[in-house]
Amino acid sequence: MLQLQAVTKTFGANTAVHAASFSVDRPMMIGIIGSSGAGKSTLLRMMNCLTPASSGEILVNGRDITKLRGAEKRDWQSHCAMIFQQFNLVPRLDVVSNVLHGTLNRRSTLATMFNLYPEDDIIRAIDILDRLGIAEHAPKRAEALSGGQQQRVAIARALMQDPTIILADEPIASLDPMNAQLVMQALRDIHEQDGRMVIANLHTLDTARRYCDRVIGMRQGRIVFDGTPAQLTTGVARDIYGADASFSEATTSTQIETLSARPETVAAQ
Ligand SMILES: Nc1ncnc2c1ncn2[C@@H]1O[C@H](COP(=O)(O)OP(=O)(O)OP(=O)(O)O)[C@@H](O)[C@H]1O
Q1: Total tally of structural domains belonging to the chain
Q2: Which PANTHER family would you find in this protein's record (predicted)?
Q3: What is the CATH number of the domain that holds 228?
Q4: What is the pTM of this model?
Q5: Which residue minimizes the CA distance to atom 5 of ligand 1?
Q6: Pocket test residue of 33, 40, 202, 218 for ligand 1, highest count of atoms within 8 A of CB
Q7: Distance in angstroms (rounded) separating the CA atoms of residues 157 and 264
């Protein structure tokens, strides 16, 4: 269903992503790891057409999305929702309106200007917030919520688009370990319950191992590892991060002692 063939991005003389190739034949949860500057964000942004690829193909069910323009490109972007480290919410707007922004691509300019939403969409937005365990915050301004809650609002906004793929660019990098686990579990639940594909850039190995079915490692713009969490040994991780023998996984850990059991659903929190 998703196939990257020699996807490359250059910024001037700098090759941010060099001939990245991999294919995914069923919805799964994929973690992309690598040190800062390895090309993870650029790779994700090319999949969403936020950054145009310099060369190569990104085939989705056989269609090369790097060639899309105008309405076709926007249509693909609505099927391929993006979540960012800094949430990208409208801080002064209430939570439910932020979630409803996920429907912007299919609403008229007039409806957008007057903040008019169909009742069905409002009900769906609240249902999604409920599923993520934050419906009680629906009337509050987004800026009044904690980071973990704001990221779940961003996930709710993404779900409003009913996407096939969710791309998450360092979704937990700004969160404390407890909230990081809530957000990762929410993404995992969405994958398992809805059958959506989730691809997340992650900066911690234990998170990639714990939540993902497959891990892709990038180093200096190249994919240097593509395998299961079990294959991601400390030695492999050391190669991905270009670290020496002193490399310690503890430096990339989000584990906390108090949250020993994996929460079954976010709604239970
Ligand atoms: N818009 C841009 N213009 C010029 N260079 C860029 C641009 N975006 C990224 N780069 C460069 O491309 C390379 C890869 O950056 P990218 O942000 O994709 O890495 P990353 O693995 O996501 O890093 P981080 O974990 O720090 O976000 C870096 O050398 C970066 O400086």
Answers
A1: 1
A2: AMINO ACID IMPORT ATP-BINDING PROTEIN, PHOSPHONATES IMPORT ATP-BINDING PROTEIN PHNC
A3: 3.40.50.300
A4: 0.89
A5: 11
A6: 40
A7: 22
